[in-house]
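[Help] Beginner question about ligand-bound structures

Sorry if this is basic. My supervisor gave me a protein sequence and a SMILES string for guanosine-5'-triphosphate and asked me to "get the holo structure". I don't really know what that means in practice or what format the answer should be in. Inputs are pasted below exactly as I got them.
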Amino acid sequence: MTVSDTIAAVSTPPGEGAIALVRVSGANAIEVADKIFHGKETPSQFEPRVQHLGEIFGSEGRLIDQVMLAVHRAPASYTGEDLIEISCHGGMLVSAKLLEACLRAGARAARPGEFTERAFRNGKMDLTQAEAVIDLIRAKTDLALRSATEQLEGRLGEQIRKIRDELIEMLAHINASIDFPEEGIAPDEGETLRARLGSIREEITALLATADQGRILREGVRVVIYGATNAGKSSLLNRLLGYDRVIVSDTHGTTRDTIEETVNLDGLPIRLLDTAGLRTSASELEREGIARTEKSLQLADLRLHIADGSNSKPPHLQERNRDSNEIVVLNKSDLPENSDWKDFHALRISCLTGEGLPELQKEILARITKQNLKPESTLAINTRHRDCLRRGLESCDRAASAQTQGLSTEYAAIHLNEALRAVGEVIGVVDVEQILDSVFSQFCIGK
Ligand SMILES: Nc1nc2c(ncn2[C@@H]2O[C@H](COP(=O)(O)OP(=O)(O)OP(=O)(O)O)[C@@H](O)[C@H]2O)c(=O)[nH]1
Ligand SMILES: [Mg+2]
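Answer (accepted):
No worries, everyone starts somewhere. Holo just means with the ligand present. The predicted complex, written as structure tokens, is below.
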């Protein structure tokens, strides 16, 4: 494949809607439009970015649809190439036939994310901005959306470029001192070099510290509801969701599988997991469910241990100290409390009446904040960025230790070069081929 071949895709989701959008991008995009569009003027004569009404005809000269077509000329388009946007009526068949017409006229079906990939390759955006497009599409809360739009505006890219520039400057200085020792350029050694490297390491460390928050913004905080059978775990999930998502019954062992739903708590996406109740069970099916409960507990950011306050206290259940990532909750506070729970420190709720639920939500938020999981800033890196920056930091550390060991500046230069590559990968400026696929394959076709 060459970048300039012409691609086409339906950019709107499948299904019925008022309109659907088909995009065509590449060197022959306008030619494709000229072949299929019939209107007062041909698309090659269109003024850019102005929509024109016309008709598209299919293979046997049959009318497919009446459409609006706009031409965007390179480089002033999303992809940086000639780009055609055709809005047709939003039916599955209409858009499919329109796409077919584009393919017959010389375009090729686009891979997922290929339009954005071209935008990146043509310098319309850096890699963090391309990734922000996915984050934007997937954002489930206001905070996540704000984070994505800021990344799309290039805030993260800016910080990365600043770190790169500092590394480049240091390297230039060191290389000059290696190449032209006789010119008398003072090698940037000793204290100055250490100080500059120190500040670069601090900047990378600060960005790395946002990784957890980035995960929370993109994926949500994992909150696992667990406890003995019949305690009211599924009832709690339904309550927090606001609708009856899970089957609730007084049969022990109703929930056999882990069930996940996302709720928005104060702008934070919370991934709530309802789990199979814990008990020694004879049924193999239920044991599998309990194994899943245990697995999800290992991945939890926060655990809600639910017990039935109207029942006797299970012997293993302990009051947890306030710092732990577990909240103990006594459910069924509408019923008389069993004397076992006297003086037991725990939140009391009733899923039946809703009593105590606001307090529980408050406590969940407080624990998340305490664990530093609540995003303070909307600048938050993703796992790919974290991987690159970790490697960058390690290389900086090696450069620093080469310095302290009094090795010649060549050693520091080697490590700084590695750091430069690793940091550059975040925005996609060096050796990016291998990472592009993994980034763009997450996109939908037509984006
Ligand atoms: N009185 C009262 N009953 C409740 C309350 N919460 C749940 N229940 C009842 O307790 C029973 C068990 O509720 P579930 O939500 O299915 O319990 P669970 O913990 O998911 O149970 P398993 O899935 O079997 O592990 C049902 O009959 C609910 O109606 C409550 O706050 N008060
Ligand atoms: Mg249940």
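A couple of things worth pointing out: The domain at 133-210+381-440 is CATH 1.20.120.430 (Four Helix Bundle (Hemerythrin (Met), subunit A)). The chain is about 45% helix and 15% strand. Feel free to follow up in the thread.
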